[in-house]
Amino acid sequence: MLHRHATAACAVLAAVGALVLTGPAGPAGASAAEPPPPSTGPSAAEMLGADRPSPELLLAMQRDLGLTRSQAEKRLVNEAEAGALAGRLQNTLGRNFAGAWVSGTLAATLTVATVDPADVPVIKAGGAQAEVVRYGLAELEVAKAALDRAAGRTPTAEVPVWYVDVRTNTVTLEAAQRPAADALLSAAGVDRALVRVTTSGERPRPLYDIRGGDAFYVGHGRCSVGFSVTSGTQQGFATAGHCGKAETPTKGFNQVDQGTFQASAFPGHDMAWVGTNAEWTATPYVKGKGDENVQVAGSTEALVGASICRSGSTTGWHCGTIEQHNASVTYPEGTVNGMTRTTVCAEPGDSGGSYLSGSQAQGVTSGGSGDCTSGGSTFHQPINTLLQEYGLTLKTSDTVAANGGVGDNAEPGKAAGLWAAGKVYRVGDRVTYDGTVYRCVQPHQAQPRWRPSGAPALWQRF
Which residue among the candidates 270, 350, 408, 429 is catalytic per the annotation? Predict the structure, then answer.
Protein backbone atom coordinates (compact mmCIF):
# COMPACT_ATOMS: atom_id res chain seq x y z
CA MET A 1 0.00 0.00 0.00
CA LEU A 2 1.30 3.45 -0.78
CA HIS A 3 0.17 6.26 1.55
CA ARG A 4 1.50 9.82 1.56
CA HIS A 5 0.83 12.31 4.35
CA ALA A 6 0.03 15.78 3.20
CA THR A 7 2.96 17.07 5.06
CA ALA A 8 5.45 14.97 3.69
CA ALA A 9 -4.13 5.00 -34.90
CA CYS A 10 -2.62 2.45 -36.81
CA ALA A 11 -4.51 0.14 -39.16
CA VAL A 12 -6.62 -2.45 -37.37
CA LEU A 13 -5.20 -5.96 -37.71
CA ALA A 14 -7.52 -8.87 -38.29
CA ALA A 15 -8.13 -11.04 -35.23
CA VAL A 16 -6.07 -13.96 -36.48
CA GLY A 17 -3.67 -11.95 -38.60
CA ALA A 18 -2.64 -9.93 -35.56
CA LEU A 19 -1.34 -13.04 -33.83
CA VAL A 20 1.34 -15.57 -34.61
CA LEU A 21 -0.10 -18.59 -36.40
CA THR A 22 1.56 -21.81 -35.35
CA GLY A 23 0.92 -23.85 -38.44
CA PRO A 24 -1.89 -25.99 -39.84
CA ALA A 25 -4.24 -27.86 -37.58
CA GLY A 26 -3.67 -31.53 -36.85
CA PRO A 27 -5.70 -34.37 -38.31
CA ALA A 28 -9.44 -34.13 -38.08
CA GLY A 29 -10.98 -35.84 -35.09
CA ALA A 30 -7.90 -35.39 -32.91
CA SER A 31 -10.00 -33.61 -30.29
CA ALA A 32 -13.61 -33.68 -29.21
CA ALA A 33 -13.55 -29.91 -29.07
CA GLU A 34 -14.21 -27.83 -32.16
CA PRO A 35 -12.33 -24.63 -33.03
CA PRO A 36 -14.30 -21.52 -32.06
CA PRO A 37 -16.12 -20.11 -35.05
CA PRO A 38 -14.62 -16.94 -36.54
CA SER A 39 -16.21 -13.80 -35.20
CA THR A 40 -18.29 -11.51 -37.37
CA GLY A 41 -18.89 -7.82 -36.96
CA PRO A 42 -16.40 -5.31 -35.58
CA SER A 43 -12.97 -6.57 -34.55
CA ALA A 44 -12.04 -6.61 -30.88
CA ALA A 45 -9.64 -3.71 -31.46
CA GLU A 46 -12.34 -1.61 -33.11
CA MET A 47 -14.95 -2.41 -30.48
CA LEU A 48 -12.70 -1.78 -27.48
CA GLY A 49 -11.07 1.32 -28.94
CA ALA A 50 -7.61 -0.26 -29.08
CA ASP A 51 -7.15 1.13 -32.59
CA ARG A 52 -7.71 4.68 -31.28
CA PRO A 53 -5.34 5.06 -28.30
CA SER A 54 -4.73 8.41 -26.67
CA PRO A 55 -1.40 10.12 -27.43
CA GLU A 56 -0.62 10.21 -23.69
CA LEU A 57 -0.98 6.45 -23.39
CA LEU A 58 1.28 5.87 -26.39
CA LEU A 59 3.97 8.19 -25.02
CA ALA A 60 4.00 6.40 -21.67
CA MET A 61 4.25 3.01 -23.36
CA GLN A 62 7.13 4.25 -25.49
CA ARG A 63 8.99 5.47 -22.41
CA ASP A 64 8.36 2.55 -20.07
CA LEU A 65 8.21 -0.41 -22.48
CA GLY A 66 10.89 0.80 -24.89
CA LEU A 67 8.59 0.87 -27.90
CA THR A 68 8.24 3.11 -30.91
CA ARG A 69 4.86 4.76 -31.47
CA SER A 70 4.06 2.28 -34.25
CA GLN A 71 5.00 -0.66 -32.02
CA ALA A 72 2.82 0.64 -29.19
CA GLU A 73 -0.14 1.00 -31.55
CA LYS A 74 0.32 -2.51 -32.93
CA ARG A 75 0.73 -3.99 -29.46
CA LEU A 76 -2.57 -2.53 -28.25
CA VAL A 77 -4.39 -3.97 -31.27
CA ASN A 78 -2.77 -7.38 -30.80
CA GLU A 79 -3.65 -7.45 -27.10
CA ALA A 80 -7.30 -6.68 -27.80
CA GLU A 81 -7.58 -9.37 -30.45
CA ALA A 82 -5.74 -11.90 -28.28
CA GLY A 83 -8.09 -11.35 -25.36
CA ALA A 84 -11.14 -12.13 -27.47
CA LEU A 85 -9.55 -15.19 -29.04
CA ALA A 86 -8.36 -16.50 -25.66
CA GLY A 87 -11.87 -16.19 -24.24
CA ARG A 88 -13.42 -18.11 -27.12
CA LEU A 89 -10.82 -20.86 -26.75
CA GLN A 90 -11.40 -20.99 -22.99
CA ASN A 91 -15.09 -21.60 -23.59
CA THR A 92 -14.25 -24.28 -26.16
CA LEU A 93 -11.73 -26.14 -23.97
CA GLY A 94 -13.77 -26.03 -20.77
CA ARG A 95 -11.99 -27.59 -17.78
CA ASN A 96 -9.01 -28.53 -19.97
CA PHE A 97 -8.15 -24.83 -20.20
CA ALA A 98 -4.99 -23.98 -18.24
CA GLY A 99 -4.52 -20.27 -18.92
CA ALA A 100 -3.54 -17.86 -21.68
CA TRP A 101 -0.95 -15.13 -22.09
CA VAL A 102 0.59 -12.87 -24.70
CA SER A 103 4.30 -12.43 -25.31
CA GLY A 104 6.78 -10.63 -27.54
CA THR A 105 7.55 -6.97 -28.06
CA LEU A 106 4.30 -6.49 -29.97
CA ALA A 107 2.31 -9.06 -27.94
CA ALA A 108 1.97 -10.83 -31.27
CA THR A 109 2.07 -14.33 -29.81
CA LEU A 110 -0.90 -15.71 -27.91
CA THR A 111 -0.25 -18.93 -26.00
CA VAL A 112 -3.15 -21.03 -24.74
CA ALA A 113 -2.41 -23.90 -22.35
CA THR A 114 -4.37 -27.13 -22.04
CA VAL A 115 -4.06 -30.36 -20.08
CA ASP A 116 -5.15 -32.47 -23.08
CA PRO A 117 -2.80 -32.95 -26.08
CA ALA A 118 -5.87 -33.59 -28.23
CA ASP A 119 -6.73 -29.89 -27.87
CA VAL A 120 -3.54 -28.74 -29.62
CA PRO A 121 -5.02 -28.80 -33.16
CA VAL A 122 -8.03 -26.84 -31.94
CA ILE A 123 -5.85 -24.17 -30.36
CA LYS A 124 -3.63 -23.90 -33.44
CA ALA A 125 -6.64 -23.73 -35.73
CA GLY A 126 -7.86 -20.80 -33.67
CA GLY A 127 -4.62 -18.91 -34.36
CA ALA A 128 -2.70 -19.39 -31.10
CA GLN A 129 0.29 -21.33 -29.90
CA ALA A 130 -0.55 -24.38 -27.82
CA GLU A 131 1.18 -25.55 -24.65
CA VAL A 132 0.32 -28.84 -22.98
CA VAL A 133 0.67 -28.69 -19.20
CA ARG A 134 -0.12 -30.88 -16.22
CA TYR A 135 -2.69 -28.86 -14.30
CA GLY A 136 -5.84 -27.09 -15.40
CA LEU A 137 -6.48 -23.50 -14.33
CA ALA A 138 -9.44 -24.58 -12.19
CA GLU A 139 -7.26 -27.01 -10.20
CA LEU A 140 -4.63 -24.33 -9.57
CA GLU A 141 -7.26 -21.85 -8.48
CA VAL A 142 -8.67 -24.34 -5.96
CA ALA A 143 -5.20 -24.74 -4.45
CA LYS A 144 -4.72 -20.97 -4.37
CA ALA A 145 -8.07 -20.52 -2.64
CA ALA A 146 -6.93 -23.01 0.04
CA LEU A 147 -3.86 -20.85 0.65
CA ASP A 148 -6.10 -17.78 0.96
CA ARG A 149 -8.15 -19.50 3.64
CA ALA A 150 -5.07 -20.75 5.48
CA ALA A 151 -3.61 -17.23 5.55
CA GLY A 152 -6.33 -16.26 7.99
CA ARG A 153 -4.90 -18.58 10.64
CA THR A 154 -1.19 -18.72 9.71
CA PRO A 155 1.33 -15.84 9.86
CA THR A 156 2.20 -14.71 6.31
CA ALA A 157 4.53 -11.78 6.92
CA GLU A 158 7.42 -13.88 5.57
CA VAL A 159 5.33 -15.06 2.60
CA PRO A 160 3.92 -11.74 1.41
CA VAL A 161 2.79 -12.77 -2.08
CA TRP A 162 1.22 -15.84 -3.72
CA TYR A 163 -0.62 -16.29 -6.99
CA VAL A 164 -1.57 -18.62 -9.83
CA ASP A 165 1.14 -18.27 -12.49
CA VAL A 166 -0.28 -19.58 -15.77
CA ARG A 167 3.08 -19.25 -17.51
CA THR A 168 4.72 -21.77 -15.14
CA ASN A 169 1.51 -23.78 -14.50
CA THR A 170 1.99 -23.46 -10.75
CA VAL A 171 0.74 -21.75 -7.65
CA THR A 172 3.76 -19.60 -6.80
CA LEU A 173 4.70 -18.41 -3.32
CA GLU A 174 7.24 -15.61 -2.95
CA ALA A 175 8.81 -16.07 0.46
CA ALA A 176 11.55 -14.41 2.45
CA GLN A 177 12.07 -17.66 4.39
CA ARG A 178 11.37 -21.18 3.07
CA PRO A 179 10.11 -22.45 6.46
CA ALA A 180 7.39 -19.79 6.40
CA ALA A 181 6.25 -21.01 2.99
CA ASP A 182 6.26 -24.60 4.21
CA ALA A 183 4.13 -23.63 7.21
CA LEU A 184 1.53 -21.94 5.01
CA LEU A 185 1.47 -24.91 2.62
CA SER A 186 1.00 -27.34 5.50
CA ALA A 187 -1.82 -25.25 6.94
CA ALA A 188 -3.52 -25.14 3.54
CA GLY A 189 -3.09 -28.85 2.88
CA VAL A 190 -2.43 -28.33 -0.84
CA ASP A 191 -0.64 -30.78 -3.11
CA ARG A 192 3.02 -29.69 -3.11
CA ALA A 193 3.33 -30.80 -6.73
CA LEU A 194 1.22 -27.79 -7.76
CA VAL A 195 3.44 -25.33 -5.91
CA ARG A 196 6.58 -23.36 -6.72
CA VAL A 197 8.36 -21.45 -3.94
CA THR A 198 10.72 -18.62 -4.82
CA THR A 199 12.90 -16.49 -2.57
CA SER A 200 12.03 -12.80 -2.55
CA GLY A 201 12.89 -9.80 -0.45
CA GLU A 202 9.72 -8.03 -1.62
CA ARG A 203 7.89 -6.18 1.14
CA PRO A 204 4.73 -4.66 -0.35
CA ARG A 205 3.23 -1.72 1.53
CA PRO A 206 0.07 0.32 1.02
CA LEU A 207 0.39 3.18 -1.45
CA TYR A 208 -1.35 5.66 0.83
CA ASP A 209 -0.63 8.99 0.61
CA ILE A 210 -13.16 13.48 -10.36
CA ARG A 211 -10.66 12.27 -12.73
CA GLY A 212 -8.61 9.14 -12.37
CA GLY A 213 -5.12 9.86 -11.06
CA ASP A 214 -5.99 13.17 -9.39
CA ALA A 215 -5.18 13.58 -5.71
CA PHE A 216 -7.75 13.60 -2.94
CA TYR A 217 -7.25 14.08 0.78
CA VAL A 218 -8.47 12.17 3.82
CA GLY A 219 -7.53 14.02 6.99
CA HIS A 220 -3.75 14.44 6.80
CA GLY A 221 -3.32 11.72 4.18
CA ARG A 222 -3.39 11.79 0.39
CA CYS A 223 -4.53 9.15 -2.10
CA SER A 224 -5.48 9.07 -5.78
CA VAL A 225 -8.81 8.85 -7.58
CA GLY A 226 -9.29 5.59 -9.48
CA PHE A 227 -12.25 5.84 -11.86
CA SER A 228 -15.45 7.84 -11.96
CA VAL A 229 -18.53 5.78 -11.12
CA THR A 230 -22.23 6.27 -10.54
CA SER A 231 -24.77 4.59 -8.27
CA GLY A 232 -28.14 5.60 -9.62
CA THR A 233 -28.03 9.42 -9.59
CA GLN A 234 -25.15 9.54 -7.08
CA GLN A 235 -21.81 10.40 -8.69
CA GLY A 236 -18.45 9.46 -7.23
CA PHE A 237 -15.23 7.54 -7.77
CA ALA A 238 -13.60 4.20 -7.03
CA THR A 239 -10.40 4.05 -5.03
CA ALA A 240 -8.46 1.84 -2.60
CA GLY A 241 -10.10 0.66 0.62
CA HIS A 242 -7.06 1.41 2.76
CA CYS A 243 -7.39 5.10 1.88
CA GLY A 244 -10.39 5.57 4.17
CA LYS A 245 -13.25 3.97 6.07
CA ALA A 246 -16.96 4.33 5.38
CA GLU A 247 -18.39 7.74 6.34
CA THR A 248 -14.95 9.39 6.25
CA PRO A 249 -15.09 12.81 4.50
CA THR A 250 -12.75 13.74 1.65
CA LYS A 251 -11.39 16.88 0.02
CA GLY A 252 -10.44 17.17 -3.64
CA PHE A 253 -7.08 17.97 -5.24
CA ASN A 254 -7.91 21.65 -4.66
CA GLN A 255 -8.66 21.09 -0.93
CA VAL A 256 -12.36 21.81 -1.53
CA ASP A 257 -14.93 19.61 0.25
CA GLN A 258 -15.55 16.69 -2.08
CA GLY A 259 -17.57 13.84 -0.62
CA THR A 260 -17.73 10.87 1.76
CA PHE A 261 -16.62 7.25 1.62
CA GLN A 262 -19.79 5.24 1.00
CA ALA A 263 -18.23 1.80 1.49
CA SER A 264 -14.74 0.46 2.10
CA ALA A 265 -13.07 -2.93 2.48
CA PHE A 266 -9.51 -3.59 3.71
CA PRO A 267 -7.90 -6.05 4.25
CA GLY A 268 -9.47 -9.04 2.47
CA HIS A 269 -10.10 -6.72 -0.48
CA ASP A 270 -8.69 -3.26 -1.07
CA MET A 271 -11.59 -1.33 -2.53
CA ALA A 272 -13.82 1.60 -1.75
CA TRP A 273 -15.93 4.25 -3.35
CA VAL A 274 -16.56 7.88 -2.53
CA GLY A 275 -19.87 9.60 -3.20
CA THR A 276 -19.25 13.22 -4.18
CA ASN A 277 -21.30 16.35 -3.58
CA ALA A 278 -23.06 18.42 -6.23
CA GLU A 279 -19.96 20.53 -6.91
CA TRP A 280 -18.16 17.54 -8.43
CA THR A 281 -19.03 15.89 -11.76
CA ALA A 282 -17.87 12.40 -12.72
CA THR A 283 -15.98 12.31 -16.03
CA PRO A 284 -14.86 9.36 -18.20
CA TYR A 285 -11.21 10.36 -18.03
CA VAL A 286 -7.92 9.55 -16.36
CA LYS A 287 -5.20 12.12 -15.88
CA GLY A 288 -2.38 11.61 -18.37
CA LYS A 289 1.00 13.19 -18.83
CA GLY A 290 0.91 16.97 -18.87
CA ASP A 291 -2.58 17.02 -17.34
CA GLU A 292 -4.11 15.67 -20.54
CA ASN A 293 -7.32 13.64 -20.40
CA VAL A 294 -7.09 9.94 -21.29
CA GLN A 295 -10.38 8.34 -22.27
CA VAL A 296 -11.93 5.38 -20.44
CA ALA A 297 -14.08 3.28 -22.78
CA GLY A 298 -14.89 0.18 -20.70
CA SER A 299 -13.57 -2.42 -18.26
CA THR A 300 -12.62 -5.46 -20.34
CA GLU A 301 -9.94 -7.38 -18.41
CA ALA A 302 -6.59 -7.74 -20.21
CA LEU A 303 -4.54 -10.95 -20.47
CA VAL A 304 -1.38 -11.85 -18.60
CA GLY A 305 1.51 -10.29 -20.52
CA ALA A 306 -0.54 -7.36 -21.79
CA SER A 307 0.64 -3.77 -21.41
CA ILE A 308 -0.87 -1.69 -18.63
CA CYS A 309 -0.41 1.93 -17.54
CA ARG A 310 -1.08 3.65 -14.22
CA SER A 311 -1.96 7.20 -13.22
CA GLY A 312 -1.25 8.44 -9.70
CA SER A 313 -1.03 11.78 -7.93
CA THR A 314 2.62 11.29 -6.93
CA THR A 315 4.34 9.79 -9.95
CA GLY A 316 1.88 10.44 -12.78
CA TRP A 317 1.94 8.12 -15.82
CA HIS A 318 3.93 4.88 -15.81
CA CYS A 319 3.55 1.67 -17.78
CA GLY A 320 4.50 -1.99 -17.54
CA THR A 321 2.92 -5.38 -18.11
CA ILE A 322 0.48 -7.69 -16.31
CA GLU A 323 2.29 -10.50 -14.51
CA GLN A 324 -0.50 -12.48 -12.82
CA HIS A 325 -4.19 -12.24 -12.00
CA ASN A 326 -5.72 -13.50 -8.74
CA ALA A 327 -2.67 -12.81 -6.58
CA SER A 328 -2.69 -12.60 -2.79
CA VAL A 329 -0.47 -10.11 -0.99
CA THR A 330 0.16 -9.66 2.73
CA TYR A 331 0.56 -6.11 4.05
CA PRO A 332 1.26 -5.25 7.69
CA GLU A 333 -2.50 -4.78 8.13
CA GLY A 334 -3.43 -8.19 6.70
CA THR A 335 -3.81 -10.23 3.51
CA VAL A 336 -5.62 -8.99 0.41
CA ASN A 337 -6.85 -11.53 -2.16
CA GLY A 338 -7.87 -11.43 -5.81
CA MET A 339 -5.33 -8.81 -6.85
CA THR A 340 -3.53 -8.31 -10.17
CA ARG A 341 0.28 -8.08 -10.04
CA THR A 342 2.09 -5.82 -12.51
CA THR A 343 5.55 -4.49 -13.33
CA VAL A 344 4.36 -0.87 -13.14
CA CYS A 345 6.13 1.25 -10.53
CA ALA A 346 4.37 3.39 -7.90
CA GLU A 347 5.15 5.45 -4.81
CA PRO A 348 3.36 6.75 -1.71
CA GLY A 349 0.32 8.84 -2.62
CA ASP A 350 -0.41 6.80 -5.77
CA SER A 351 -2.81 4.51 -3.86
CA GLY A 352 -6.26 4.25 -5.37
CA GLY A 353 -5.06 5.52 -8.76
CA SER A 354 -6.12 4.20 -12.15
CA TYR A 355 -4.77 1.27 -14.17
CA LEU A 356 -5.62 1.21 -17.88
CA SER A 357 -4.88 -1.28 -20.63
CA GLY A 358 -5.50 0.68 -23.80
CA SER A 359 -8.76 2.46 -23.05
CA GLN A 360 -10.05 -0.29 -20.76
CA ALA A 361 -10.13 0.25 -16.99
CA GLN A 362 -8.32 -2.53 -15.12
CA GLY A 363 -8.20 -1.60 -11.44
CA VAL A 364 -7.21 0.76 -8.63
CA THR A 365 -3.72 0.90 -7.12
CA SER A 366 -3.32 -1.02 -3.88
CA GLY A 367 0.37 -1.37 -2.97
CA GLY A 368 3.72 -2.66 -4.03
CA SER A 369 7.48 -2.69 -3.63
CA GLY A 370 10.24 -0.45 -4.94
CA ASP A 371 9.75 2.97 -6.51
CA CYS A 372 9.79 4.74 -9.85
CA THR A 373 13.55 5.40 -9.70
CA SER A 374 14.83 1.89 -9.08
CA GLY A 375 11.73 0.06 -10.39
CA GLY A 376 9.35 -2.24 -8.60
CA SER A 377 6.11 -4.16 -8.78
CA THR A 378 2.58 -3.19 -7.82
CA PHE A 379 -0.80 -4.75 -7.16
CA HIS A 380 -4.20 -3.44 -8.14
CA GLN A 381 -7.74 -4.27 -7.06
CA PRO A 382 -9.58 -5.31 -10.25
CA ILE A 383 -12.22 -2.74 -11.13
CA ASN A 384 -14.86 -5.27 -12.18
CA THR A 385 -14.82 -6.86 -8.73
CA LEU A 386 -15.27 -3.43 -7.15
CA LEU A 387 -18.12 -2.50 -9.50
CA GLN A 388 -19.87 -5.78 -8.82
CA GLU A 389 -19.44 -5.65 -5.05
CA TYR A 390 -20.88 -2.15 -4.69
CA GLY A 391 -23.38 -2.15 -7.55
CA LEU A 392 -21.66 0.69 -9.38
CA THR A 393 -21.55 1.71 -13.02
CA LEU A 394 -18.25 2.77 -14.55
CA LYS A 395 -18.35 6.21 -16.18
CA THR A 396 -17.13 5.77 -19.76
CA SER A 397 -16.88 7.88 -22.87
CA ASP A 398 -19.99 6.19 -24.22
CA THR A 399 -22.00 5.89 -21.01
CA VAL A 400 -25.70 6.52 -21.46
CA ALA A 401 -28.57 5.68 -19.16
CA ALA A 402 -27.69 2.13 -18.15
CA ASN A 403 -29.29 -0.31 -15.80
CA GLY A 404 -27.57 -0.34 -12.44
CA GLY A 405 -26.86 -3.45 -10.48
CA VAL A 406 -24.26 -6.13 -10.44
CA GLY A 407 -23.64 -9.37 -12.26
CA ASP A 408 -25.13 -12.62 -11.08
CA ASN A 409 -23.16 -14.52 -8.49
CA ALA A 410 -23.59 -17.83 -10.31
CA GLU A 411 -20.51 -19.84 -11.19
CA PRO A 412 -19.00 -19.08 -14.63
CA GLY A 413 -20.82 -21.07 -17.29
CA LYS A 414 -24.12 -21.03 -15.43
CA ALA A 415 -27.17 -19.32 -16.86
CA ALA A 416 -27.06 -15.63 -15.96
CA GLY A 417 -30.53 -14.60 -17.15
CA LEU A 418 -31.29 -11.76 -19.51
CA TRP A 419 -28.39 -9.59 -20.64
CA ALA A 420 -28.43 -6.15 -19.00
CA ALA A 421 -26.20 -3.11 -19.25
CA GLY A 422 -24.43 -2.38 -15.97
CA LYS A 423 -23.93 -6.02 -15.00
CA VAL A 424 -20.47 -7.50 -14.57
CA TYR A 425 -19.91 -10.71 -16.54
CA ARG A 426 -17.16 -13.33 -16.43
CA VAL A 427 -15.84 -15.76 -19.04
CA GLY A 428 -18.37 -18.54 -19.54
CA ASP A 429 -21.41 -16.68 -18.18
CA ARG A 430 -24.51 -17.31 -20.30
CA VAL A 431 -27.15 -14.72 -21.07
CA THR A 432 -30.18 -14.43 -23.30
CA TYR A 433 -30.54 -11.50 -25.66
CA ASP A 434 -33.32 -11.17 -28.28
CA GLY A 435 -34.17 -14.84 -27.73
CA THR A 436 -30.63 -16.06 -28.41
CA VAL A 437 -28.25 -17.50 -25.82
CA TYR A 438 -24.72 -16.06 -25.71
CA ARG A 439 -21.63 -17.00 -23.73
CA CYS A 440 -19.20 -14.40 -22.34
CA VAL A 441 -15.71 -14.30 -23.86
CA GLN A 442 -13.96 -11.65 -21.72
CA PRO A 443 -14.66 -10.27 -18.21
CA HIS A 444 -16.29 -6.83 -18.42
CA GLN A 445 -19.10 -4.58 -17.22
CA ALA A 446 -21.79 -4.53 -19.90
CA GLN A 447 -22.52 -1.25 -21.64
CA PRO A 448 -25.53 -0.36 -23.81
CA ARG A 449 -23.42 -0.18 -26.97
CA TRP A 450 -21.91 -3.62 -26.30
CA ARG A 451 -25.01 -5.73 -26.88
CA PRO A 452 -24.21 -9.43 -27.39
CA SER A 453 -25.52 -9.57 -30.95
CA GLY A 454 -23.01 -6.94 -32.09
CA ALA A 455 -20.07 -7.52 -29.75
CA PRO A 456 -18.17 -10.63 -30.91
CA ALA A 457 -15.12 -9.59 -28.88
CA LEU A 458 -17.18 -10.08 -25.71
CA TRP A 459 -19.91 -12.60 -26.60
CA GLN A 460 -20.35 -15.69 -28.75
CA ARG A 461 -23.51 -17.59 -29.62
CA PHE A 462 -23.92 -20.60 -27.37
Answer: 270
- Global pTM reads 0.84
270 is catalytic: yes
Residues 3, 242, 318, 444: which is the catalytic one?
A: 242
Per-residue pLDDT reduced to its tens digit, 269-280: 999 999 999 899
| Architecture of the domain made up of 207-399 | Beta Barrel (2.40)
Domain 404-461 grouped into CATH 2.10.10.20: yes
Could you tell me the residue ranges of all domains in the chain? 13-53+63-132, 137-199, 207-399, 404-461
- Main-chain phi, psi angles of 160, to 5 degrees: -75, -15
Residue 351 annotated in active site = yes
Clarify whether 3 is annotated catalytic: no
Q: What's the confidence (pLDDT) of residue 9? A: 33
Q: What is the CATH architecture of 137-199?
A: 2-Layer Sandwich (3.30)
Note the pLDDT of residue 32: 56
User: Among the options 43, 307, 328, 351, which is catalytic?
Assistant: 351
